[in-house]
Amino acid sequence: MPAAVAVKDRLFLAVAVLRVVLLGNAVLLNIWHAEELQRPAAGVACLVLMTAWTGIATWAYAEPRRRTFRLLAADLGIAMGLLLVSPLVKDDGVTSSVPGFWVIAALAAWAIQYRAAGGLAAGALLAGADLARQEVDASDYGNTFLLLVGGAILGFMCQSLQEMATERDVAERAAAVAAERARLARAVHDGVLQVLALVQRRGRELGGDGAELGRLAGEQEHALRALIREQDEVSVAGGDTVDVGAALTRLERRDQVTVSTPGVPVELPAATALELVAATSACLDNVRTHVGTDAPAWVLLQAFPDRVEVSVRDDGPGIPAGRLDEAAAQGRLGVAESIRGRIADLGGTADLVSGDFGTEWELVVPRPGAGLGSAS
Amino acid sequence: MRVMVVDDHPMWRDAVERDLAAAGLEVVAVAATGREALARFPAARPDVVVLDLQIPEPDGVAVTAAIAQQDPDVRVLILSASGEQADVLAAVKAGATGYLVKSASREELLDAVRRTADGDPVFTPGLAGLVLGEFQRTSDSPDDPRLTDRETEVLKMVAKGLSYRQIAERLVLSHRTVQNHVQNTLRKLQMHNRVELTRYAIERGLDADG
């Protein structure tokens, strides 16, 4: 489990830094309250031991193979010993110990190495030593409680971190395998597409049954290409957003509907994307109804940071001027109104332009939280 | 007109070569791999290279970049079976001026080769959509080349399936002007590619002063 080992290494590195900081804190506090020292020489000896052990421990914990039970036992033993000798070094009635918070480094080491159980055990032993050296009052109870709970929680968190790192490792490996599989599949797909395109081309030239074969090959080519594009656009974002580009691409029909997208996933909330695709689909149905079942149509998706725009165009004769207003005045809310209504519900606009160049819908829908789901 | 055909599928290469020859175009070289293509290109001196993107190393994008650097006047028409969007866009950024799917008919292919030779960009609506997306995505830096409103308008119309003739009629422009707008779009896209490369080089300390 290399990821779990890496996490452990990093946690021990953090403990090394913590140990130095706590050492500095303990030295300063002992100098500050030097008058509390009953035996100054013993106090200095304790601090020298702490400094030396901080150096040794930092070196020893840096290498995974040196993190043996003996090292951890020595670490905890020294911390407990320093707590226990504190009453002999300091004046009677002084509640602070010589090592102070420095003992937490040993607790953290146990929590990292032996997880929740280790943290709890080390916490219990340190709390025991702390209680044994003095008369118990309310604040000592607090310290004991903190050592026990803190040790267990720290251990649990270290365990979770290592497990998460392992899981991430597995997921990354799975993604790499999937990418490699996709690369291999691409080579096969390309070969199939080449042959289908060739059959289609030659079939058209041969006519008759050949043309029929060509048409079938064309359908399969189209289906395979749509599949590849969809796979390429499978979003890693997941959750409740949908790539509206991939969804619109599904509306493509051979020799009839052409869909153009920016080529990168365009994420929209699922409900918005669904409505936008439904409205686009309604526009295309309209083309089939009013221009012809085989009439070509083009769909263009554009993504801006604050909005997406979908254009649907046909090459038909256009809608005679006033025809829509007339229908609306007669209270016939046709397809056009239903498309406008759908887009208006999404907070966007739907405009219809018609002329001898054909008919064009411009559907504009705002993107929520502009910048969050950016296309780049 | 001198044409070079690069495709690793012999059946395809032969079919394209036959169609071009039958239409009176001179196929001066064929190649099955990127390496062959680069080796034969200097001697063949084609006007147009009809290039498949998925060929053995170096791939179509790299070949496009290499030959565009050797001879800025050569025109590259991408003929791709899979139409992988990222690859097509990369090839156009590298200097290709046309793109056609392989399922296009013989007439469409001949028309595309002739137009490419004339310097007329051969866009599909899909490619226009990709190029539009590229400019919309990367317009955050003031150094980047931008499209004018007119160029964006023309490109949008290409993406919506209008032919150059239809665009000219609708915008009351000459056919030539529409072509120029599309050419400028491609030029800016390729320039943008160079700006990106330069920026990349400077960031990595690869520039001459660094």
Write a brief caption for the model.
The complex is a heterodimer of chains A (376) and B (210). In chain A, 64% of the residues lie in helices and 11% in strands. By secondary structure, chain A is of the alpha+beta class.
How would you characterize the overall build of this protein?
The complex is a heterodimer of chains A (376) and B (210). Chain A is α+β, with helices and mostly antiparallel strands. Chain A has two domains: 170 residues, no CATH class; 140 residues, Histidine kinase-like ATPase, C-terminal domain (Heat Shock Protein 90). Chain A contains ten helices and seven strands. The longest helix of chain A is centred in the middle third of the chain and has 69 residues. In chain A, 35% of the residues are buried. The C terminus of chain A is likely disordered. Chain B is built from nine helices and five strands; from the N terminus they run E-H-E-H-E-H-E-H-E-H-H-H-H-H. Chain B is α/β, with parallel strands linked by helices and 210 residues long. In chain B, helix 8 crosses helix 9. A five-stranded parallel beta sheet of chain B has the order 2-1-3-4-5, sandwiched between helices. Helix content of chain B is 56%, strand content 12%. Chain B has two domains: 121 residues, Response regulator (Rossmann fold), CATH 3.40.50.2300; 78 residues, Orthogonal Bundle (Arc Repressor Mutant, subunit A). The chains are: A alpha+beta (376), B alpha/beta (210). Chains A and B meet through helix 5, helix 6, strand 2 and strand 4 of A and helix 1, helix 4, helix 6 and helix 8 of B.
